[in-house]
Amino acid sequence: MELTAWGRAVRKLRIDRNETLKEMAVAIQVTPSFLSAIETGRKGVPEDMVGKVVKHFGLSKEGAAELRRLAIMNVQRVEIDTRRATGEDRELVAAFARRFSGLSEAKRKQLRSILLPEEN
Questions:
Q1: What is the distance between the alpha carbons of residues 45 and 38, in angstroms, rounded to a whole number?
Q2: Which of 77, 67, 69 is nearest to 11 (CA)?
């Protein structure tokens, strides 16, 4: 199975430090099969996993930020908590979810500039 971008980055960290998947799994308190499943994209990257990897490898702020970015890219499903949202806000979220796959690249670029201004 092909590795995700996050999985490639983590595997490179392990190999550069001459550490096996099993050794890393033990160190960050997960099973080797779970770590493998995350690397290959069979499972998503849990919220606390990035922190565990950052701490384990003693990554810099830049390295941690890159690992977080890669973990976000690995996400296949996103949940939005709308319990405190207005009816209009819920309508907006639902419309976005329904229409997301049909957005043109120009519209996606426009959304990125609004939602991710630090990357532009």
A1: 6
A2: 67
CA distance 4 to 64: 17
3 neighbors 39 (Cβ within 8 angstroms)? yes
Instruction: Provide the 3-class DSSP secondary structure of residue 18.
Output: coil
Give the list of residues 6+ apart from residue 103 with CB closer than 8 angstroms, or none: 111
Q: Token pair for residue 43?
A: 């499972």
Helical segments of the chain, H only: 5-16, 21-28, 32-39, 47-57, 61-73, 87-99, 105-115
- 6-36 pLDDT per residue, tens: 999 999 999 999 999 999 999 999 999 999 9
pTM of the predicted structure, to 2 decimals = 0.68
> How confident is the prediction for the chain on average, in pLDDT?
90
C-beta separation of 6 from 71 below 8 A: yes
Please report where in the chains the tokens 């499943």 appear, as a residue.
37
The string of pLDDT tens digits covering residues 95-117 is 998 999 999 999 999 998 998 87
